[in-house]
């Protein structure tokens, strides 16, 4: 990956509905996690907050919410890529009393005139008591 992205969050998304798809205002939803005011209670909540971080351009949160064993040293977000929708397809574990979990999702994006879809089965684990992104399950 290239240089760390130091752009601030795009304020248009920050003032509206949260990109994670729950229908709440960003500031009351994933914005709380991005600002460090709360922790994700489940693996799905963390995955949604990470999607929202991609949507608003918050690379710092993405790095903070990544497992130390698999986290890259830097993260560059493509400013031309716009995340336009999220579908959670399923979860396995990742609840309040679990230590690991997976979330399968489909994320939609636009890059210029092109649209695309990313489907992933992400693995999450608790690190120091909080949920973090581990990696995607290629198996």
Automatic annotation (TrEMBL):
Concerning InterPro entries, the annotation shows: NTF2-like_dom_sf, SEC_C_motif, YchJ-like, YchJ-like_M
Per the record, the domain of life is Bacteria
Q: Which residues form the YchJ-like middle NTF2-like domain?
A: 42-135
What is a single Pfam family found in this protein's UniProt entry? Answer: SEC-C
Name the family the entry cites: Belongs to the UPF0225 family.
Q: Which HAMAP family match?
A: UPF0225
How is this protein named in the record?
Answer: UPF0225 protein SAMN05443287_1044
Give the source species.
Answer: Micromonospora phaseoli
């Amino acid at each position: 990956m290239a240089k760390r992205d130091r752009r601030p969050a795009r304020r248009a998304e920050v003032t509206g509905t949260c990109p994670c798809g729950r229908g709440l205002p960003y500031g009351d939803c994933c914005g709380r996690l991005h600002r460090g005011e709360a922790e994700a209670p489940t693996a799905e909540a963390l995955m949604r907050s990470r999607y929202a971080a991609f949507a608003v351009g918050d690379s710092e949160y993405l790095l903070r919410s990544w497992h130390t064993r698999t986290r890259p040293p830097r993260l560059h977000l493509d400013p031309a890529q716009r995340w336009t929708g999220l579908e959670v397809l399923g979860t396995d574990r990742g609840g309040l009393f679990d230590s690991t979990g997976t979330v399968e999702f489909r994320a939609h994006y636009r890059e210029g005139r092109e649209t695309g879809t990313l489907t992933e089965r992400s693995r999450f684990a608790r690190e120091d008591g909080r949920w973090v992104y581990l990696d995607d399950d290629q198996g």
